[in-house]
Specification:
DNA-binding, five-stranded mixed beta sheet, 16 helices, 38% helix, DNA binding, Winged helix DNA-binding domain-containing protein, 372 residues, AlkZ-like
Amino acid sequence: MLEVSREQALAYRIAEQGLHRSVADPYDLPLLDLGLQDSMRDTAALSLTARMPDPVTPESLVDDARLALVWSHRGAPHFHRRTDLPELTAALVPVDDPDALARMLWQKKDIQAADVSPVDIVFTTARAIRKVVTKPMTKGVVSGEITKLLPPAFSRWCRGCNATHVHEQLMRIASLHGGARLEAGQSPATLAPLEDRGRMSTRPTPAAVSRLIEQYLRFNGPATQGDSAGFLGTAKTSVSETWPASLAEVKVDGRRTFIPADRLSALENPPSAAGVRLLPPLDPYTQGRDKAVLVPDKARAKEVWKILGSPGALLVDGEIMGTWRMKASGKRLAFSLAEFDPLRRSDRETAEDEAARVAAARGCQDFSVTWG
């Protein structure tokens, strides 16, 4: 069994995620096989800016007809290649009721009240979405319309909306099965029918789920079954049922983990992790579920992953060495960078160059950088 150090595993991960800027077109970035989350303003564009030779603007993502924004992993909005959507949709079909229940984030008492299996709840909601979303519609309108078509047990009281409507997470995980995508760049969130909906399939496709797990392990490995389940938003037992056969077991500083067997050579000899990057909140690199591997120090980890309002991460030579935030005031951006330990002057200067790239991606020529 191959045994590697934590530093070696992170260097491999940095290379697999494209942080060496060796790909010029976002569409060709291998990481897009897994998708790019876009939950906060410009997250996907800034994640690409950290990986592309030139800054990527949010408008260029919105205008790229080769990409689609959909609610996918954990019900979060992700950019995916349109050509990948059929395989992705198949991979997101719950393999059984425990899988569906975990994805829905319901309690067992809620299922008992509904008196319907979790899988049936998901696809009953998907059918309602397919019936309602025949043109671009705001999320609020869609929610209101499908609530009328669904049993009352599918709904919850929403304090923010001051209304009772379909459970938010349920609508999110059912939307892709219902043939709906998100209109990129729109606020409030707007749903629209996928141009090529195809027929809805309710049958699990274990092979598609296994391939999705392999993708997670390729870009975030070596990792565990629990890590994979956390990313998919399901239970570990559900992942074990579709655990890929083509994996190699690897020890990372004594921890038992897995990686696709065809990536072993890349793991054994990863390129140097040297370099500085400003990773936005919810960047794929910090979305790895093994946070203790990414940032072993618990106090520092609390600074990187906050319950509310997480900052971006300052990546220096393979280690997260600080955090960063930016604040817009008109057409001016103010960057605030905080280092965990004093950085070399050259690393600070490179971090400031990275801030200039982020400002360019946001369309701001006027920006400032302060260190705290």
